[in-house]
Each structure stands twice: as C-alpha cells, then as structure tokens.
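Structure representation.

___
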Amino acid sequence: MRILAIDPAIRNTGFAVIEGDPQNHKALAYDVISIPKKFPQSEALSAVRTGLCNLIKKWEPDEVAVESIIYVQSHRTAISMGAARAAALIAAADHGLKVYEYAPRKVKQAVVGNGAADKSQVAFMVRALLGLKETPVHDAADALAIALAHLFSSDPLKQKSLPRTQV
C-alpha cells in the first residue's frame, strides 16, 4: 500500500509518502510545502492544494492519512488550521482518494509509545522506524508519523489502540 500522509498548515504543510505494510515499509518522499508569509491566506491555501495535487499525481497513493483537528486556544489558529486541512481534503477528493484521520495523541502513541511525546521524540522514532539517515524536520516527521500510524492501524494486533476514521 502507498500512503500520502499530510500534517496540514497554511505556511508549512508536512507531507510524507511511504509504501509497504505494518511490518515492512519504507519512506519514498517527505518534506514540507512552505508558503511565504507574503501570500494572502487564499493564495496560500491554493498553493497548498496545488502542491498536494502535484504530489498525488507524482506518487499515485492508494490512500491519504491526515492529522485530525487539534484543540487550540486561539480561534484564529483553529480557523487557519481547519482551512489548511480543508485544502488537503479537497486535493485528495479531487483524485478520488479515501482519507483517514488520526488524532495527534494517537499518532504519538502509535509511533513513540507515549501520546504526550514531544516533536523531537517523534522525529527520532520516525528516523529509527524508517531507517532514515537524517532526522527529518518536525513537520515532515509529523507527516511520516501519521503515515506510520495509518499503516499500523491496518495491523489486526494494533487496531484496538489506533482507530481508523474515514473522513
């Protein structure tokens, strides 16, 4: 199975493409779609969608996994994050892909074993689990963790701890 995982944000959307199954998997690509602050929000969202559509065309994933909405104290941040998530969902829908969402705590639990792990712990474990030569930047590491959580959710032995929610 080939998965495109997305950690959505208006300015720095992390993405990862991994292939395999719960026991045997490898990272094909991972990085961050960075949008300059000078772009207005509408242009930034369009650029995120376009970037993700280009990735979908290039890598032809079977499914998409995205981080679910998280609790934030700022309404402005929540709206911005929701808009970036919508851009990602639309890109996937435009290509007829099924989308699954995962709560950040569940992703951390699946990859690190601790739902309260910090970003450096997630990046370290992603590097170890995928045998990467370098530790990925945090947004890309988060996307890789989401991809691994999605793969692990298809493992019957781990399904109870990591529910799959189709969007």
Notes: The beta strands are 2-7, 12-20, 25-34, 63-67, 98-102, 165-166. The mean pLDDT is 91.
